[in-house]
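For the sake of transparency, this paper describes our internal protein records without simplification. The record that follows is passed on verbatim for readers who wish to inspect the format:
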Amino acid sequence: MYAFLDGFVIVVMYLSTDARLSVIQNLSRTSCILLKDFKDLSKMIHTKDILCFLFLAIHVPNCFKHNIFVTVQNLTNIYIMMANFSMDIFYINCVCILKDCFKKIDESIRQLKKLRINDNMSTQTFMHHERISPLVMMKLKNLEEKHLQISDGVELLNHTFMIHITVAAITTFIVVTFDIYFYIIYSYSGFPANSKFWYKPYVTPAAFYFIKFWMMIWACETATNRARKMKTTLWDVFSATNDPFVKREVELFSLQIMHTTNIFTAKTFDMNSSFLAKIVGGIIMYILILFQFLLNYVVCSLHM
């Protein structure tokens, strides 16, 4: 099951190369608004990626066993894991970039408040209004275009990674459930441990898969919240405006934010904390079911 799911994702990854290139091209256009802010983001991205890959790389020497068949199997498994992990990291990085783009637009909207204050406090009301209002309108229209580009990027990302996210959720559920179950049996009943290439059997892969999926959920949740915050910021800045043209542009921008949900989803489910809570609840429930089957098996064995 594990080899089929993660192997299937690798096949899909190679078949969807053009789609991933489209995502990268879209990000290169939309992320130009970050400018200097991208430097701090790139440090976080590279640090996270390097540490995660080093964590997997230290397990490569443990793949080599006395049995050549086991060695090949371990190397194949860790290759499949690294290939899938690279796609997970790529998805998380794309979401983080889109989140910072939403944050930049939100900050740009707040900066427009200074123009409004200068417009309201000016003594040369008419002439100053003639200069400030068109400038505010032009900046609002530019932010609307940028917001629409970022929203298209979110939609493209959801469409490109729909299969990958679905498989990642299923794989995380299966691996964490059975590894925790086998670890409990291994700890209390002397069940033989199948370490494969992990230095710490059962616990390490369960923690690795869960933390990786939690990082995906965290990135999607924070990006969605950042996108929703823009509407509140927009009305906070322009709630007291008297200019009918600016007010009309603010209404159009607000409608655009409402119609572009900017939710990171895999069609069947949304990537948010409630979905993570459902997975955790499902893991606990299925572990209890597995223990019930084990208990019934032990009772039947004793009666026989």
